[in-house]
Amino acid sequence: MKKTLTTTALGLLAALGATAAMADIKIGASVSATGPAAFLGDPEAKTLEMLVEETNAAGGINGEKVVLVLYDDGGDPNKARTFATRLVEDDEVVAIVGGTTTGTSMSILSVTEDAEVPFVSLAGAIDIIQPVKPFTFKTPHTDRMACQKIFEDMQKRGFTKVGLISGTDGFGASMQAQCKDVVSDYGIEIVADETYDPKDSDMTAQLTKIRNAEGIQAVLNPGFGQGPSIVTRNYKQLGIELPFYQSHGVASAGFIELAGVEAAEGVRLPGNALLIPELLADGDVQKPIVTAYKAAYEAKTGQPVGTFGGYAHDGWHLVTDAIKRAGSAEPQAIRDALEATSGLAGTTGIYSMSAEDHLGLDLSAFRMLEIRDGKWALVE
Fold first, then answer.
1. 84-131 pLDDT, tens per residue?
2. Which residues contact 216 (CB under 8 A, 6 or more apart)?
3. What 3-state class would DSSP assign to 114?
């Protein structure tokens, strides 16, 4: 699937012997609007479509209209690589926002790094930006940061022995490794460690082993997609009463719907301000950002706003802000301006990047949340 969005009448321009590239700034995107990660990629695509309209309605970027060239990779890394190549070589975009999953992001960056075109990923794994790659940036907190935020909360609650049940997909495997790497910093021991394939339809065997682990006090599920919802349902079915944590990879209303309100009750996870705009203090610098995006997205789509569309929101604004500050739509100038981003408030946090940090968020951007009666509540 390919969509090209512009306020310019391309047919008329062609008749006049002109091209959109002469007057417009082309920004590319490859997201997983369909396929197993569609619940992530669909709101990302809709957000980008909405934002290009908003940008052009406000006069474009430095007076130039913007064209969004959007492809749907269906969550397939090979398709993502193909579309990234097409965006760079055929569509001649000046930057790319996308990469719904870790796998598709890694494919896209393999193209954009060689082509020296800025890429802002919407996926969570730390491997996307560490080690730092010159032209690659991202908007979500890393999986390592999620581990740290969760273990901070566990430590406050006095837990010292926990279990892991992780997906074997790129995100799940990466977060599992990151959690193992930092867990000892919090005086916590992993006493059970199980995995599941994202396509599995039942995880009761693994959860039974975890429940029977000696001294276990809490359980964490690094993963994203439908797997964590199944794990949550199985957790409830087995009557496990241990505190249960999920990752930021499922921080959306869709997770609660798939898992079921009763099964999701009490689940904790690190999320961002977008999930709780009504709970933010009036002086919170993110409140006007998340409130405006939520209102616009829900009015445009008729669907509830979620974390993943927020990642696309931030990616778009990072790129357009960089172009504005650079005064240029040349890829190298955009890259340099992205790296110099400072104090840019988004739905996910406040971004301040550097040559050593192509994310620009710290743990304060995370809010520890708990699901209560099917809604998000802030853990004090």
1. 999 999 999 999 999 999 999 999 999 999 999 999 999 988 899 999
2. 161, 162, 163, 191, 192, 210, 242
3. helix
Contacts of 296 (CB under 8 A, 6+ apart): 50, 54
The residue type of 29 is A
CA distance 95 to 321: 12
For CA atoms 221, 278, 97, 10, give the dihedral sign. positive
d(CA 284, CA 290): 10
What is the identity of the amino acid at 299? Answer: A
Longest alpha-carbon distance in the chain: 76
Contact status, residue 7 vs residue 58, Cβ threshold 8 Å: no
Question: For residue 131, is the peptide bond before it cis, meaning its omega torsion is within 30 degrees of 0?
Answer: yes
> For the chain, how many residues are written?
380
Domains and CATH numbers, the chain: 2-141+288-365 (3.40.50.2300), 143-271 (3.40.50.2300)
Q: What digits encode the pLDDT tens for the residues 252-265?
A: 888 999 999 999 99
Of 45, 28, 84, the residue nearest 309 (C-alpha): 45
Distance of CA 334 to the CA centre of its chain: 21
Using an 8 Å Cβ cutoff, are 342 and 279 in contact? Answer: no
Q: How many helices (H) and strands (E) does the chain have?
A: 14, 15
Nearest by Cα to 1 from 37, 51, 45: 45
Helical pair 307-326 and 287-301, crossing angle rounded to 10 deg: 110
Q: Is the pLDDT of residue 2 over 70?
A: no
pLDDT in tens, 33-77: 999 889 889 999 999 999 999 999 999 999 999 999 999 999 999
Which of 374, 216, 160, 181 is closest to 207 using CA atoms? 216
Parallel, antiparallel, or unpaired: how do β-strands 136-138 and 119-121 relate? parallel
Mean pLDDT of 11-32: 62
Residue 298 identity (one-letter amino acid): E
| Residue 340 vs residues 313, 335, 351, 364: alpha-carbon distances, Å | 19, 9, 10, 20
Tokens of 19: 């091209």
DSSP annotation string for 263-298: HHTT-EEEE-GGG-GGGS-TT-TTHHHHHHHHHHHH
